[in-house]
């Protein structure tokens, strides 16, 4: 969610410091992008660490692709 919020702020025409102010107008955008890149890097590193700790058998189940497009559909509980 924070990544989406950061991207929305960067793309938004409304800024904390308006972009038309010379030299200072882009500072808030640069700060948001730097924070966004740091956040993404931290999240990816946490995922890589988690993935390295998983048993190969568990990864084989999680990473298995469905054989057919129909198997991609989420199946709810069977109705009686």
UniProtKB/TrEMBL annotation:
InterPro entries: DUF1232. It comes from the Bacteria. Pfam families: DUF1232. One of its GO terms (cellular component) is endomembrane system. This is DUF1232 domain-containing protein. It is found in: Endomembrane system. Its main location: membrane. It comes from Pseudomonas fluorescens. Residues 2-35 form the DUF1232 domain. Keywords: Membrane, Transmembrane, Transmembrane helix. It is a multi-pass membrane protein.
């Amino acid at each position: 969610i924070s990544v989406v919020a950061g991207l929305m702020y960067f793309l938004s025409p409304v800024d904390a410091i308006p972009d038309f102010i010379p030299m200072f107008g882009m500072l808030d955008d640069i700060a948001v992008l730097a924070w966004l890149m740091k956040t993404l890097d931290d999240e990816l590193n946490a995922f890589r660490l988690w993935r390295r700790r998983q048993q190969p058998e568990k990864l084989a189940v999680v990473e298995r692709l469905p054989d057919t497009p129909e198997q991609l559909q989420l199946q709810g509980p069977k109705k009686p």
